[in-house]
Design goal:
alpha/beta, seven-stranded parallel beta sheet, globular
């Protein structure tokens, strides 16, 4: 088992109110993304870090925390999504690089048992601590595609398209479609990279 950075906490708890209580201990705002993270690290780590790099530079305050909500093994079985890795392995392969990239921020991993994180975000909002931001990669929330689940519970919602429009995340086909144009900010981080130059790319 790889050693966790000191700024990383992984919460594997079935009760949503307990998850909220543990996140509250950070005593700061939390910026979220979510997914299964069943793909190889070589594919998902660059986009994960790139997305949070944008959040760190353009959205989050200096002291605010980052969090990744990750489908638990129960969630994956209930949604009939196949994977060769258990929830710990899927979490660690993205969370450890994220925590090492941002050593001055608290980083949380949150396993949820439901098929989507909707109830998790709703519980956080109910307890007065809605996500400061929620972002998703892969065409969610864009042009009538699949919605960003939980968008109504976050203060700010961002969508980051993949470089290739043909790439599709795991839950693309089963996520409800809808118009979220009034709620979701679309940011092309690949275009942002080229405008910013090679000195400090958002996606590398």
């Amino acid at each position: 088992m790889p050693k966790h950075p000191k700024n990383l906490m992984i919460i594997s708890e079935p009760r949503l109110d307990v998850i909220a209580h543990r996140l509250r201990r950070a005593r700061t705002g939390v910026h979220f993304t979510n997914g299964t993270y069943r793909d190889p690290a070589s594919l998902i780590v660059p986009t994960t870090i790139g997305g949070f790099r944008f959040i760190a530079e353009r959205v989050a305050k200096r002291h605010e925390a980052f969090a990744m909500a990750i489908n638990s093994d129960v969630s994956m079985r209930n949604a009939d999504i196949d994977t060769d890795e258990n929830q710990r392995l899927r979490a660690e392969k993205v969370l450890i690089p994220l925590a090492r990239t941002f050593p001055d921020r608290q980083v949380f991993g949150v396993h949820y048992h439901q098929e989507t994180p909707e109830q998790l975000y709703a519980e956080l909002k109910r307890q007065g601590m809605p996500p400061e931001s929620l972002h998703k990669w892969g065409g969610y929330g864009i042009d009538g595609g699949p919605i960003i689940v939980g968008a109504d519970h976050a203060k700010r919602v961002l969508a980051f398209p993949f470089e290739s429009a043909s790439d599709r995340p795991a839950f693309w086909d089963i996520t409800p479609k809808g118009d979220q144009t009034q709620k979701v900010e679309v940011v092309d981080l690949y275009q942002a990279r080229s405008r910013r130059g090679a000195a400090k790319p958002i996606i590398s």
